[in-house]
Amino acid sequence: MAILLVRHAESFANAGGVTMPHGAIPLSDAGRQQAAALAALLPSAPAAIRVSTMLRTRQTAEPYCALVGIAPQEYALLDEFSLVDPALIEGMDGAQRRLFVRRYWEKPDPLHRWGEQADTFAEFAGRVDDFIAKLDEIEDASVIFGHGIWLIMLHWLLRGNSTKTADDMIAFQRYRLAFAMPNCAAFKLENDKQTGWHIDPSFPRVFGGNDG
């Protein structure tokens, strides 16, 4: 059994645009071009296509869905880490957000919620863990459009790492910063009787995009 996971194309936020609600962030103009090019490079006969509830994954999937004639299914377990409530960083551009968000990782606390519309680190890790627990329910040969930190957390958890303590958060952040995750990067998730679910080591493959 195998599932292809693809990070969304360049978003307005990746391009440094001002803060928007997490779920409403669209693709940039460059991201729309990437999504159009990506469609022809993905499997021609997927069993199903899944996206998060966030606009940028749906917009990345749209050209591919049109090409293969399959409507995307929204799957909330794919939603990205909403680290900080957008209301607290309203009007900030990408450079300003990076400085603000750096403060979050300087005081790691898995149960800290930075505003009403934010996830705790524990909730985010739990969401990805729930996805892993339900992998057997996803159709073989599915294509899934997801998010950068979410995909890195998937790798982290499949390697048996913990997310329970502040030290775990620090270790995850170091892992994340060292992990190349360009827009449109693709990973193949496989399942077999010997190893269970694992990432195909011949991946990632980058179909286009940048590492923002």
Condensed summary:
With 212 residues, the chain is an alpha/beta fold. It has helices at 29-39, 55-68, 94-106, 121-133, 148-158, 166-178, and strands spanning 2-7, 49-51, 73-74, 143-146, 185-192, 196-199, 205-206.
How does this structure look, described?
The chain has 212 residues and is α/β, with parallel strands linked by helices. The protein has one domain (2-206): Rossmann fold, CATH 3.40.50. The protein is 35% helix and 14% strand. It is built from 6 helices and 7 strands. The chain has helices spanning 29-39, 55-68, 94-106, 121-133, 148-158, 166-178, and strands at residues 2-7, 49-51, 73-74, 143-146, 185-192, 196-199, 205-206. Strands 1, 2, 3, 4, 5, 6 and 7 form a 7-stranded mixed sheet that branches. Strand 2, helix 2 (55-68) and strand 3 form a beta-alpha-beta unit. Helix 1 (29-39) runs parallel beside helix 2 (55-68) and helix 4 crosses helix 5. The longest helix has 14 residues, at 55-68. The protein is globular, with a radius of gyration of 17 Å. The model has no long low-confidence stretch (mean pLDDT 91).
Task: List the defining traits of the structure above.
alpha/beta; Rossmann fold; single chain; 7 strands; seven-stranded mixed sheet; globular; 212 residues
Strand percentage lies at 5-15%
Instruction: State the CATH architecture.
Output: 3-Layer(aba) Sandwich
Could you describe the largest sheet, including whether it forms a barrel?
Answer: 7 strands, mixed
Strand tally, please? 7
Give the averaged pLDDT, no decimals.
91
Tell me the radius of gyration: 17 Å
* Assembly level: single chain
Show unreliable segments. Answer: none
Which CATH class is shown? Alpha Beta
Secondary-structure content class: alpha/beta
Secondary structure tally, helices:
6
CATH H-tier superfamily? Phosphoglycerate mutase-like
Order of helices and strands: EHEHEHHEHHEEE
Tally of domains: 1
The general outline is globular
Kindly identify the CATH topology. Answer: Rossmann fold
- Overall helicity: 25-40%
Spatial separation of the terminal alpha carbons: 31 Å
